[in-house]
Design a protein that fits this description.
By secondary structure, the chain is of the alpha+beta class. It has four helices and six strands; from the N terminus they run H-H-E-H-H-E-E-E-E-E. The strands form two sheets. The protein has a three-stranded antiparallel beta sheet. The N and C termini lie far apart (48 Å).
Length: 138
Amino acid sequence: MAEAVTDIETRLRHCGLRPTRQRVALADLLFAKGDRHLTVEELHEEATFAGVPVSLATVYNTLHQFTEAGLIRVLAVESARTYFDTNISDHHHFFIEGRNEVLDIPVSNLEIGNLPEAPEGMEIAHVDVIIRLREKKS
């Protein structure tokens, strides 16, 4: 565990973030289970269950700091719910309605073409595709 904490601390420092006890604990929870999609509330619940004393506001602020540092990315699936994605590679998503579950789609499985010209002085930074799924009705 000490090696994992040191790795997280190094990663945070490399991104310009001071590795505070709360940031390290939240990063450990966030990245320990591989690529995943979490809301602020879900990470707060995991932290509480793991005995990490953090407020919901601290989790919110920390996730946004991690986003600004390039450690995670924001995925706005619904207006009322924002997910944070630990996989920052180029990829797209399925969103399963009714379950509020987000799944990765490898970028190689989707081809995007005929994008509009960006306005003067702008360039396209990223294209996010979210394909909404629901259970088939029998």
